[in-house]
Design goal:
single chain, Heat Shock Protein 90
Amino acid sequence: MGNRIVYFLNTYLHIPYQEAMNFYDQVFRQHADLLFFLSILIVFFILIYFFLRILTHYFDSIHQGLDSLLDDQQQRIRLEPEMEETEIKLNAIKKALLQKDLIAKEAEQRKNQLIMYLAHDIRTPLTSVMGYLNLLEEKQASLSMEERAKYTHIALDKAHRLEHLIQEFFDITQFSSTAISLENIDLYYMLIQMKEEFYPILLEKDMDILLLLDEDLTIQGDANMLARAFGNLLRNATSYGYPHSKIVISSTKDENHITLFFQNKGKTIPPAQLAQLFNQFYRLDESRNTASGGAGLGLSITKDIILMHHGDISVQSKDDQITFTLTLPIHR
């Protein structure tokens, strides 16, 4: 290094050789430690500069990736190849955020539908109740006892219809926010009780419930919720099943699950309608809107209850036979 410095001074700066040697000795050789330290310091700062540039570049890339989390675009986040793991995590977070946003929008839409259907379905019986009560009040002096009894009966019937609709709407909101209370349930005994409870309805349509069940059907679940789910299926079968027919409830069982089959004779449901049976507010027979039909929430509530029990429910319809299949885990 010394020879190179002297050569540079002598050749390019035209300093005599001996003077160049003296200059090198006085400036460089006598301050070698200081110059070595300054050289290391300069190299250190150069390395720090390039390291910070690389690091800043990575931070800018991450910053852009974080910004993309806030938009609604489905475009995948792209980072530097060295940051592949961070890229994967950011994309997973973005996917989760988009899914939550979609769920929130669907929930908002369902809430708006709930309010819309509530207003629509309640208005009809409420108008009838108010109409007949006004009629009784305005013409009470001129009405006969038979007419008063008739109008009172109609108003009461519409009031019961109104109460039933409000209860259905209350149930659909309650089941979405209620926790399950686990207990051991004897499904065989529960379904026997429900058969007895439905006896008046079955008698009216000359129908019967046939239980083809294993007596050892015990699971862990919420008894009140499951009773409501089974009741909805039986009510659906009695409403849409053929008169003078049987509702057959059968079962299978394996080590971890119990499967129940609710079968009834009824008009074959087209596939397009079959796919919508568990949708909220869907009615298979629109003519039942203002008659004895409910708000179209029964099967939706049933599905929610089964899913809350980590089970599954499906429906098939073929050759005038409708079959609901429920699978429930034995243990929770």
